[in-house]
Amino acid sequence: MRRRFPLRGLCVVALMTGLGGCVIGDVTPASGSRPVTDRAAGGPTATAPTLQSRAERAYYARVETNYRAQELLRDDGDAADAPFDADDLAENFLRIAFYDEFTERDGVLVREAAENRLHRWQQPVRLSVEFGPSVALEQREKDQAAIAAYATRLSRLTGLPIRVSNWRPNHVVLIVNEGERAGLAERIRAFAPEVSQAALDTVTQMRPDTYCTVFSFTPGASAAYSGALTVIRGELPDLMRLACIHEELAQSLGLIADHPHARPSIFNDNEEFALLTRQDELMLRMLYDRRLRPGMTLAEARPIVEIMAAEMLPGES
């Protein structure tokens, strides 16, 4: 479900797609940008979705049913049939945290794997969740609760303060339906003024087999994130939407690539696991271990990562 798109001025960390990091330049999220939904005192109201949006909702319901029929989108993160040892953990972490999968050339995103430096947050993450006007109120409540609970879990795993807050958010999550996505360019530019047109096109012209995407930003040549923006299709059924929340929010923390041998993991294109797994939790703990630092190269980090993996899984190599 995922493709990675490194772009000028930002990193589109993940596109979650039905078939299937990096930061260049200087992007600083703008403050005081206008939200998608009305937060007036009377509370939000939902408008009727378009006919196309209703058709997409029915389509993605069939897609989820098809995945489940193939025993994909599993939610058993401690899968007994997917053992891994310390060597696996170390190698999977290095492949996921230190490689980009896409780059932008002449305004076009192309697949091109490339080694990169370690990126992660060095400041608290304040998540703001915004919904398109036609997203049902019941779905908004469900997604708000899921994101708040997951933020708490990610904070516990990484030691990084992560919480849902509308006060000066530095990670905006947009959950929008068809028609609303096409109008997101202004909202995205308000949050990240230097975002490239290629990045905008991945959202405003989102392909049917793309479910969600996340952009992570750094100021200048820094390897420490200063902001992120996630876009999720509102038409997705519950499990696929939750899978997007799990993957995109975790990706935005610095685990930026997929690796075909990572199992059990959501950082894998085979769609086997929908929700964060035990191995993913260990990789997030490694990412924010104080022995690593933003800007480290793979060669610098490898011996440290191997030690950490052995500590987490003693005797398993």
How would you characterize this protein structure?
34% of the residues lie in helices and 20% in strands. By secondary structure, it is α/β, with parallel strands linked by helices. It has a 7-stranded mixed sheet with strand order 1-2-9-11-8-6-7, with helices on both faces. Strands 3-4 form a two-stranded antiparallel ribbon. The protein has a two-stranded parallel ribbon with strand order 5-10. Helix 3 links the parallel strand 6 and strand 7. The protein starts with a strand and ends in a 5-residue tail after the last helix. 46% of the residues are buried.
Overall helicity: 25-40%
Strand tally is 11
- State mean pLDDT (0 to 100 scale): 87
| Main structural class | alpha/beta
Helical region count?
8
Unreliably modeled segments: 1-10, 19-28
Strand percent estimate: 15-25%
Largest sheet: 7 strands, mixed
Shape type: globular
Distance between the termini: 30 Å
Q: In what order do the strands lie side by side in the largest sheet?
A: 1-2-9-11-8-6-7
- Using the CA coordinates, give the radius of gyration: 18 Å
Q: Helices and strands, in N-to-C order?
A: EEHHEEEEHEEHHEEEHHH
